[in-house]
């Protein structure tokens, strides 16, 4: 598989530009989420600086995706604060929240492409819905984004014709087509072989390094987490167990952290046997 990180020039379109520094800061304060009497998030505190990649890891069911959806405005938190730049979105009116959402791109675990639409139509979907643009400009942006993710010339394909890795990259192209200040990724390398996973990792880092995008990545992939992250947070039973740089996490003496990152079957994390 070939991938040229320089295949697209950010200067080709006005739509690609670095995020405004302070407006792309994400701060979470004492965030709680409860559903059906269960406390899923129990007072989360996190901060992601502009242009950083924060990876959120933890066992299945610990609240990672719920946290991501709360930050992205897809799930309404029960209490606490989520600051997107200078906008506090917990309890925000839907119309105002929609404006904040437009500053963020979401890359879903299973790509979430529309099966009946072509790759071009999937990537152009947000542009056609939210912005008054000429067809020529939309075509240029779609072509540019597909080149950026290493998929030039795939506009006419349908999702059924794509491999898992290609679908993930089309999902990323769709997310960045709107020139977001922030990107939220839910398990971006899940189900991918190591080579394709490394390509996706390179793309995530490229969004940071070339465009200044602030990113939150939910992942189980320990190799990817330590490859791409500036900061790492581990959630355990709805709480932040540890938060710090990759080196700080690796050197943590917490037995739960060590069991998780080393993948040991024995330790304080108990896994139910079926």
TrEMBL record:
Keyword Nucleotide-binding: yes
PROSITE patterns reported in the protein's UniProt record: ABC_TRANSPORTER_1 (PS00211), ABC_TRANSPORTER_2 (PS50893)
A Gene Ontology molecular function term of the record: ATP hydrolysis activity
Assigned keywords, A-Z: ATP-binding, Nucleotide-binding, Transport
Matching Pfam families: ABC_tran
Domain of life according to the entry: Bacteria
InterPro entries recorded: AAA+_ATPase, ABC_transporter-like_ATP-bd, ABC_transporter-like_CS, P-loop_NTPase
Stated name of the protein: ABC transporter ATP-binding protein
Protein source organism: Capsulimonas corticalis
């Amino acid at each position: 598989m070939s991938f040229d990180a320089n295949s697209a020039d950010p200067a080709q379109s006005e739509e690609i530009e670095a995020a405004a520094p302070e407006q792309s800061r994400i701060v979470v304060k004492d965030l709680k989420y409860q559903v059906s009497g269960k406390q899923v998030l129990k007072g989360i505190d996190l901060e992601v600086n502009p242009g950083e990649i924060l990876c959120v890891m933890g066992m299945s069911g610990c609240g990672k995706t719920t946290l991501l959806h709360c930050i992205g405005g897809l799930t309404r938190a029960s209490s606490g604060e989520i600051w997107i730049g200078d906008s506090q979105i917990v309890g925000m009116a839907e119309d105002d929240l929609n404006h904040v959402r437009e500053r963020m791109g979401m890359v879903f675990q299973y790509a979430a492409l529309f099966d009946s639409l072509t790759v071009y139509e999937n990537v152009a979907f947000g542009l056609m819905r939210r912005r008054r643009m000429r067809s020529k400009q939309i075509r240029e942006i779609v072509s540019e984004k597909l080149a950026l993710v290493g998929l030039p010339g795939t506009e006419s394909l349908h999702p059924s014709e794509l491999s898992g890795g290609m679908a993930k990259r089309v999902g990323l192209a769709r997310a960045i087509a709107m020139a977001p200040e922030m990107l939220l990724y839910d398990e971006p390398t899940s189900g991918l072989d190591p080579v394709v996973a490394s390509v996706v990792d390179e793309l995530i880092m490229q969004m940071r390094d070339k465009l200044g995008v602030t990113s939150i990545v939910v992942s189980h992939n320990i190799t990817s987490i330590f490859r791409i992250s500036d900061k790492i947070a581990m959630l355990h039973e709805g709480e932040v167990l540890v938060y710090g740089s990759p080196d700080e996490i690796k050197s943590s003496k917490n037995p739960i952290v060590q069991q998780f990152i080393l993948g040991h079957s024995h330790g304080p994390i108990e896994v139910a046997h079926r």
